[in-house]
């Protein structure tokens, strides 16, 4: 058998197949061609020595900002190379008035797969610091639904940032929140709610959320927390997670508080998905990239297989792309992250300046996107190493 690329001897972790073990992975074109203990008969155009590394499905980051006409917007392709992320979800940086140019100028040009949520605010986050829904006229249910219908291959849901300084207090805040829920229902998709200094509590929000809807920034500090005043995870939060509401990390520069993270972990409450909320104000730290965020969960004691699942197979299912993404099954798209685990002492910083010391740090060694080795990033093993 001939193939284009062979990843030799890495430890494969594929939660979609409950597979963990040393395997060779062969890629032909943009597909996974074979996964086996020793694919000695395979003749590959290019071989990468993956011994000592983890070979996992391409990472899926459920929360990034890559619309350039926002103070938050980053370029998608460098994030892919640097972080092993082959699919990323832009979390509502554009709204109905600027979604089409976002698609034309960024999504369609990126080599990385970018999917997106449409912000309920017609202007999205172009002036995010001013509060995109303080003027109720910007809440555009019809336009949001229309964008999702016109771009069904990339527009997968609805976003609202439900802070009081963004959606207003009292009745106005609630009206915006209800509009976001309505846009998700009318478009037949799901809603991602950014929490933080919100005009309603999380249990109050959860009454309106259905399975598949998502709370992002779920370990945020401040006044809107998943825990009560004594640090106990709300019963309503557990019940919502049980019925399929997604609790997403969305680390960012203001949304990951060790106190909340550790209180939740001590009560065995874990996120559904690990994501970064990478934007201009957190890429230089404390977030850096997806593998760093994943490493924080290793430090908290979560097994590597579960950390990988929360960063691949689960977000793929939420995006309804699990037939193709978040898996290394033969015949699926060859999106692959090769991760290196370094041991040492690593300073892990939350969004509030608190530090913890971790013993393991994951980093992206090689990223394969649609069968091609992505240039850039750390990529050490993509170069020829001497035996
Ligand atoms: Zn965000």
Notes on the protein architecture:
With 387 residues, the chain is α/β, with parallel strands linked by helices. It folds into two domains: 2-56 and 330-340 and 359-382, Roll (Urease, subunit C, domain 1); 59-318, TIM Barrel, CATH 3.20.20.140. Helices cover 25% and strands 29% of the residues. It contains eleven helices and 15 strands. It has helices spanning 76-83, 99-107, 141-150, 164-167, 170-187, 202-206, 235-242, 258-266, 290-299, 304-311, 313-318; strands spanning 2-14, 19-28, 31-36, 43-49, 54-57, 59-64, 85-95, 113-119, 155-161, 190-194, 214-216, 246-248, 336-349, 355-369, 372-373. The strands form two sheets. Strands 1, 2, 3, 4, 5, 13, 14 and 15 form an eight-stranded mixed beta sheet that branches. A seven-stranded parallel beta sheet has the order 6-7-8-9-10-11-12. Helix 6 links the parallel strand 10 (190-194) and strand 11 (214-216). Helix 3 (141-150) packs parallel to helix 5 and helix 9 packs antiparallel against helix 10 (304-311). The longest helix is centred in the middle third of the chain and has 18 residues, at 170-187. The model has no long low-confidence stretch (mean pLDDT 96). Zinc ion is lined by residues 63, 65, 91, 250, 252, 277.
Provide the fold topology:
Blueprint: E1 2-14, E2 19-28, E3 31-36, E4 43-49, E5 54-57, E6 59-64, H1 76-83, E7 85-95, H2 99-107, E8 113-119, H3 141-150, E9 155-161, H4 164-167, H5 170-187, E10 190-194, H6 202-206, E11 214-216, H7 235-242, E12 246-248, H8 258-266, H9 290-299, H10 304-311, H11 313-318, E13 336-349, E14 355-369, E15 372-373
This protein binds zinc ion.
């Amino acid at each position: 058998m001939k193939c284009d690329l062979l990843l030799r001897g890495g430890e494969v972790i594929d939660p979609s197949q409950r597979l963990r073990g040393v395997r060779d992975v062969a890629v032909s074109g943009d597909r996974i061609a074979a996964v086996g203990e020793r694919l000695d008969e395979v003749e590959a155009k290019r071989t990468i020595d993956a011994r000592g590394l983890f070979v996992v499905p391409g990472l899926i980051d459920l929360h990034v900002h890559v619309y350039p006409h926002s103070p938050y917007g980053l370029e998608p392709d460098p994030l892919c190379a640097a972080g092993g992320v082959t699919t990323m979800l832009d979390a509502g940086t554009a709204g109905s008035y600027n979604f089409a140019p976002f698609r034309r100028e960024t999504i369609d040009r990126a080599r990385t797969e970018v999917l997106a949520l449409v912000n309920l605010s017609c202007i999205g986050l172009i002036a995010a610091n001013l509060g995109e829904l303080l003027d109720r006229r910007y809440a555009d249910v019809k336009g949001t639904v229309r964008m999702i219908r016109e771009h069904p291959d990339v527009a997968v849901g609805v976003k609202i940032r439900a802070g009081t300084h963004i959606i207003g207090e009292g009745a106005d805040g609630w009206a915006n929140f209800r509009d976001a829920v309505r846009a998700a229902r009318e478009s037949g998709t799901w809603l991602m709610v950014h929490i933080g200094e919100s005009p309603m509590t999380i249990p109050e929000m959860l009454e309106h959320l259905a399975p598949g809807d998502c709370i992002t920034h779920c370990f945020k500090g401040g006044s809107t927390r998943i825990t009560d005043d004594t640090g106990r995870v709300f019963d309503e939060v557990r019940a919502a997670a049980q019925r399929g509401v997604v609790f997403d990390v969305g680390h960012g520069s203001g949304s990951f508080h060790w106190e909340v993270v550790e209180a939740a972990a001590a009560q065995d409450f874990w996120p559904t998905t690990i994501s970064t909320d990478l934007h201009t104000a957190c890429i230089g730290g404390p977030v850096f990239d997806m593998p760093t965020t994943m490493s924080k969960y290793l430090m908290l004691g979560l097994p590597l297989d579960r950390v990988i699942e929360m960063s691949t197979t689960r977000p793929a299912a939420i995006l309804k792309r699990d037939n193709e993404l978040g898996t290394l099954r033969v015949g699926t798209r060859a999106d692959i992250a090769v991760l290196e685990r370094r041991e040492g002492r690593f300073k892990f910083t939350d969004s509030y300046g608190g530090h913890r010391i971790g013993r393991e740090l994951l980093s992206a060694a090689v990223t394969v996107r649609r069968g091609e080795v992505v240039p850039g990033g750390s990529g050490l093993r993509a170069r020829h190493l001497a035996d």
